[in-house]
Structures are given as C-alpha cells and as structure tokens.
C-alpha cells in the first residue's frame, strides 16, 4: 500500500521535484548529493517501510493475525532491540562507507545528477531493469551463501530469525551486506542511470526487502496481482525451512533452476 501511495505521490508532484532537485544541485556538491542522497534513500526506504509492520507487531499484535504467516511468533522487546543495534552498526559502519567508496565508480560509469530529471517512463523502465538484474545476482549469491562453510560463517546471521519480521530484513553479517550490495548497485552502474533514478531504485529495493520479511501476507500485496513476484510467504518459507526459494524478488529463478519444488509440494499439500 505504501508503495502504491509513494508512486502516486511521485507522479503528482513531478514539477515540484524538478524544482527541488535543481535547488539541491545548486546548494550541494556532487559528492554530498550522491553519497548523502543514497544513504538517505536507504534509511528512509527501510524505516518508513518498517513503521506499519512494527505497529502491527508491537502495538496491535492481534489486529492482522489472519494475515500473519507464522502466527505463533511475534518479535519481543529483546529481538527488536538486538535488531536495532545491529542495524545501526550495519547502516553506519558498513553501508555508508560502502556507498562513499563506490562514489568514484558511480562517477566513472556516468551516474550524474545534472538537471533536468529523467523522463518518468525512463525512470520506470530502468528501475524495472534494476529489479531484474538484482534478482538474478541475488539468487546466485544467496545460493552460494547456503554452501556449508559460507552458511556456518556468514549466512547463519540472517537465518537467526526463522520467523522474519520487518526490522530483520537487512540484519545480516557485514560480509553478506557487502556481497549482496553488488547486485544492488549493478543495475544503476550497468545502465549509467541518473542519480534520481538510482535514488528511486534504492528506496524501492529497501521497501521490497521489508515487504518480503514483514511476516504478513495481505490481500493487497504485490504477489496477489503479479504471479511472478515472490512476496512475503515465498521468502518466509525460506526462513522457516532454511532452504529453497532463494530468489529475493521474483519467482523466475527458483522456477527455472527447480529450487522451489519442496515449496510447491508443501503449498499443494496445505491446500488439500
Ligand atoms: Zn538464506
Ligand atoms: Zn531473508
């Protein structure tokens, strides 16, 4: 729902955005706007995405119980505190330096901020392409992380939550955050996207991560309209059984490489 509102708001205020962007370009350096903008997009996308789910998990646990995938577990104060501390460290200690050190790459491949903003159809097409690139890269890195040594030393961190919740979306080993950051920045780098498009992509990618870790499968979730979008239950299954359904966004890769067979059997058995 937040995603739909954000897209509508963006379309409605396109003229205002053009003006704001020009003012920002005048008042800041390219480095400040690229690094500060990307970090702000990550933080805003993440925490704004978390708010409605935190309300449901903490303030009104019974309100959306029907939509909760794993109804037997809600995050308590300890889990939330542990996740928050871990996220502060990951955002400030890993992601911010990663973005700042990627700045020369962004410049080298032609990610620029120059006004005017790109056309809305260009933004939409490039963001969709970024989702496809991210999904493919993320699928193979995630499968690799499930090999015994990498799982024991790196990926175990993300799997400490067998019933995922919104705040736990990015709670992972710093090395995993860096590894999975590669397919995230691969799209804008390969497409030489405008900085504005890159910011939109980063925010939506954060929101998508929250969505699939939220633990809630609502009737208005994207996967109800787009059958090739994985969604919450698809990724929840991966956390519950620790294998299968490796893709982060779409269902293509798991379908093509046969890593969703157990999931499909389980779904069929449940629907009988
Ligand atoms: Zn995993
Ligand atoms: Zn996960």
Low-confidence stretches: none
How many β-strand runs? 0
Structural class computed from helices and strand pairing: mainly alpha
Instruction: Give the overall average pLDDT.
Output: 91
Compute the number of helices: 11
Q: Note the main sheet.
A: none
Shape: globular
Strand content: under 5%
The kinds of small molecule bound in this structure are: zinc ion
- What is the rounded Rg? 19 Å
Helix content: 55-70%
Indicate how many domains the architecture comprises. 1
The N- and C-terminal alpha carbons lie at a distance of: 31 Å
* Succession of helices and strands: HHHHHHHHHHH
Notes on the structure:
It is built from eleven helices and no strands. It is mostly helical and 272 residues long. It has one domain (2-271). It is globular and about 60 Å long. The protein starts with a helix and ends with a helix. 35% of the residues are buried. The structure holds zinc ion (ZN) (2 copies).
Could you list some keywords that capture this structure?
272 residues, 68% helix, 0% strand, binds zinc ion, single chain, mainly alpha, 11 helices
What's the short story on this structure?
It is built from 11 helices and no strands.
Topology:
Blueprint: H1 2-12, H2 14-27, H3 30-59, H4 77-109, H5 120-145, H6 148-153, H7 174-191, H8 195-213, H9 231-241, H10 252-256, H11 261-271
Helix pairs in contact: 3-4, 3-8, 4-7, 5-7, 5-8
Bound molecules: zinc ion (ZN) (2 copies).
């Amino acid at each position: 729902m937040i995603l739909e509102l954000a897209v509508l708001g963006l379309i409605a205020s396109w003229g205002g955005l053009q003006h704001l962007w020009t003012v920002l370009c005048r008042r800041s350096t390219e480095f400040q706007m690229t690094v500060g903008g990307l970090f702000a997009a990550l933080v805003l996308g993440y925490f704004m995405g978390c708010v409605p789910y935190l309300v449901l998990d903490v303030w009104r646990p019974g309100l959306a119980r029907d939509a909760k995938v794993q109804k037997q577990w809600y995050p308590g104060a300890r889990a939330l505190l542990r996740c928050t501390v871990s996220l502060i460290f990951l955002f400030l200690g890993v992601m911010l330096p990663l973005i700042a050190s990627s700045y020369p790459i962004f410049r080298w491949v032609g990610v620029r901020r120059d006004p005017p903003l790109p056309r809305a159809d260009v933004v939409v097409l490039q963001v969709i392409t970024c989702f496809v690139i991210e999904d493919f890269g993320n699928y193979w890195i995630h499968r690799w992380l499930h090999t015994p040594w990498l799982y024991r030393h790196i990926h175990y961190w993300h799997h400490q939550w067998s019933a995922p919740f919104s705040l736990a979306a990015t709670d992972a080993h710093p090395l995993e955050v860096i590894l999975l950051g590669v397919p995230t920045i691969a799209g804008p780098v390969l497409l030489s996207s405008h900085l504005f498009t890159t910011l939109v992509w980063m925010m939506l990618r954060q929101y998508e991560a929250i969505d699939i870790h939220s633990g809630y499968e609502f009737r208005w979730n994207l996967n109800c309209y787009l059958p090739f979008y994985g969604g919450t239950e698809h990724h929840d299954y991966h956390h519950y059984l620790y294998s299968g359904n490796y893709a982060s966004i779409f269902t293509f890769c798991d379908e093509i490489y046969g890593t969703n067979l157990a999931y499909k059997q389980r779904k069929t058995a449940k629907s009988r």
